[in-house]
Amino acid sequence: MAEKAxxxxxxxxLPGRAFGRVLSELGGTFLFFLQAVALMFAGWGxxxxxxxxxxxxxxxxxxxxxxxxxxxxxxxxxxxxYALSVFGADGFLGTGVALSMVRELAPVxxxxxxxxxAGSAMTAEIGxxxxxxxxxxxxxxxxxxxRYLVAPKMAACLISFPILxxxxxxIALWGGWLTGVKLLGAxxxxxxxxxxxxxDWSDIEGGFIKSLVFAVLVCTICCFEGYNTHTRxxxxxxxxxxxxxxxxxxxxxxxxxxxxxILTSLLW
Amino acid sequence: MGNAPSIRxxxxxxxxxxxxxxxxxxxxxxGGKLSMVVGGSGSGKSTLLKHILKLQPTKEGRVFIGGxxxxxxSAREQRCxxxxxxxxxxxGALLGSLRLGDNIALPLRExxxxxxxxxxxxxxxxxxxxxxxxxxxxxxxxxxxGMRKRAGLARALVMDPQVLFCDEPTSGLDPVMSAELDQLxxxxxxxxxxxxVVVTHDLRSMHALADFVVVLGDExxxxxxxxxxxxxxxxxxxxxxxxxxxGERATSRLTLPPISQDKMKLDCADILGAKATGRKDGRCxx
Lengths: 268, 286
Hints:
The complex is a heterodimer.
Chain A: H1 2-38, H2 45-57, H3 62-86, H4 93-131, H5 134-140, H6 145-183, H7 188-198, H8 201-227, H9 237-267
Helix pairs in contact in A: 1-6, 1-8, 2-6, 3-4, 3-6, 4-6, 4-7, 4-8, 4-9, 6-7, 6-8, 8-9
Chain B: E1 7-16, E2 19-29, E3 34-39, H1 45-52, E4 60-65, E5 68-69, H2 75-83, E6 85-88, H3 100-111, H4 116-129, H5 145-157, E7 163-167, H6 175-191, E8 195-199, H7 203-209, E9 212-217, E10 220-225, H8 227-231, H9 236-242, H10 269-272
Parallel strand pairs in B: 3-8, 3-9, 6-7, 7-8
Antiparallel strand pairs in B: 1-2, 1-4, 4-5, 9-10
Helix pairs in contact in B: 3-4, 3-5, 4-5
């Protein structure tokens, strides 16, 4: 009887313990984010480090963002043209491409691409520094690793994500024009006037708000995973870094998509 | 001489996670001397260093540096002690994204108001001290293991520390390089007035350098005292450790015969010859 009761307690304790772990990790991640934001403005020394990170996260991602934007715009232009022309509404092609890109696809796809390109690199870099005692060395030299490593990355993400999202929008609109107008024969003047007419400031503002939120989420998750590589039970060393990187990319993508749904519900 | 602080551990228990590696350590590393911590693998030598340096949370007990209880210090006081503490990590722990010169200049740029010219003069001086004056523009991955350790030592010394910790400085180095690094540490010891605590496996280094020795093992401190006292000890574990003897052992630890050729997926007998079943010469009489 007592054994049965013990089994029941264990059965109840199991999800409780898992929930506690999740809650503790969420709390840890939030404190990590607050610390990074607070240290973003800790002295002029941060400026040079932030510029270097903007170059890595932003400038070096321009090509991949341009390619993704171009092909996404081209596909949207083609699919929407086929769908709209069934109802004789191909004049609304510009509206469809512009709204879907500016409100949804540009911020989401930019965030996901940057997670794959820059976020994984951030996790791996910080994770390797953790296992090779470089972060301990910073601590011993009385250099706050959060200020030295994480804060410049956070600032760079907050600068790069909205700019790259805007760049994605431009290229994608051009891609939609390329297939819809040049390839399939929609009217060029109507396309551009619909693009201009259908977008108002709240759409553009919403897209930028999303990209800023995604920047915070991606940077916090990726840096947090790398920073805590050594706490992974049973996966220390290089395996721990690979596990952290995988976990950071998966968590970032899921969280970006979930946050996108919540933000869309709140913004429009 | 005389200003270098002593380091005292009171009832310190060390470990990681839920594992305790050593309990109730009461040790005093004398100020201005070179102390060495030795012991078998897994006895907690490097973990002890991490606990003294507050890189791992203390399970139990207290650490005093220069008479100051590290757990009772304000954030500012802890920072002051950190800035006067140098650490040579096992693999140097140089920042991979910075050139060697920038690695060594980093603490000076962060914590002093020196001009760039003055910083470079100190960096060049420290690099020359460890024989790496030609390597300031190299990245850490372009350096050999010995060079990385010497560079780590240069960085540890750049803020003129009063306490220097070294984690296995000679591990992975050839005997010549080890002797050079020992000589270098001795010179540093004579040049700077500081307390040095060196974790090592290298008994030759210990005999060459140590003023004071701590031996860890069996989850406790087995010995602390001078090298002469250690050499004179009759304790069987310490004697075995010092004489590098493997202790009494049964005839063989291998209870299974070698894997026979017909069980191997790839038949290499035509290239390497058939695998012998064992050697029967003077060294392998068992």
